[in-house]
Amino acid sequence: MNEFELIDVFFKSKALIRDELVYGIGDDAACVRVPPGQDLYISTDTLVADVHFSSNWDPYDIAWKAVMVNLSDMAAMAAEPCWLSLALTLPHNDTAWLQRFSLGLHAALTAYHVSLIGGDTTKGPLSMTLTVHGLTATGKGVRRSGAKNQDEIWVSGELGAAALALYSKETWPAADRALLMTQLQRPKPRLDLKAVLQTYATAAIDISDGLAADLHHICKASGFGARLFLESIPIHPLVRQYLPEQALEFSMQGGDDYELCFTSPAAVHDELQEALGQTGLRCYPIGVIETKPGICAVNSTGDLVPLVPKGYRHF
Ligand code: ADP
Ligand code: MG
Questions:
Q1: Residues 2-35: pLDDT tens digits?
Q2: From the CA of 115, how far away is ligand 2's center (Å)?
Q3: Residue of 132, 181, 206, 279 with fewest CB within 10 Å of its CB?
Q4: Ligand 1 atom with minimal separation from the 25 CA
Q5: Interval 81-100: pLDDT, tens
Q6: What pTM was computed for the model?
Q7: Would you give the DSSP letter of residue 192?
Q8: In this structure, which residue's CA is closest to atom 9 in ligand 1?
């Protein structure tokens, strides 16, 4: 199969169509029409083999994860993901690999009603760069920079399982290992929090590099610091079970969970809880924004524990 047949078979023929799409794959550029009264959000993420995923993974899972980490950036902005382009670099033209990859890709995009509108296909070491486009009503997006002094800090789910997956041992029960791998390979972008964020959040970020590192981005962008209550951090039960000593470390510093961390005024705490309850969602208040720069943590005895955001850094 040559490059163009490959694009037709694995990407173009299965791409989902959305209303605002004027035309997608097949021209030199795709054309979309942003509806009046909406803002357009654009975000790019690259996944490199054996950095962001293992080249041994089922290509279905690689595609699924690549889509979800991109959609997670839209979730963090409280935007609805609509269109995606994919620049795929492959070491060779392996149709069995592409078959599985394209199956995972289109399943992931269909699950979230996102159109594949274009991309590029090249030969080289395995990597992929996805660009996702999303919409909100004008001005409704949530940025990292809006946190205010005394805002509460929330996290949208239990943390640490994705990091534990990379650490898991052959001797652990297969069911637990499988569950951890699912956390790593199939993160769920928290698009279900869009309305809550748009109504209550002053700042938000998705947790890709670890809670401490990502909260640090909110603090820096907003010009404040943060105080975390270590007892309130929602640690994934398997992390507690397998690594009781390092559970907090994994939950605070481990990446790849793709939950959201957001801030909102303490005055709306009850209203926010009520809104979450009505939609069957649960988020956890874990701390407070303060004027003192940096992130500090308070343990159960009220002692201050300094915290260094480690997070994964490429350079
Ligand atoms: P050009 O040479 O003008 O850059 P290409 O031949 O690379 O165009 O691509 C042809 C069409 O196929 C374009 O519409 C492009 O967006 C689309 N395309 C190429 N690779 C992919 C891919 N991996 N996924 C989705 N669309 C793709
Ligand atoms: Mg061209």
A1: 889 999 999 998 888 898 999 999 999 999 999 9
A2: 20
A3: 279
A4: 14
A5: 999 999 999 999 999 999 99
A6: 0.95
A7: G
A8: 120
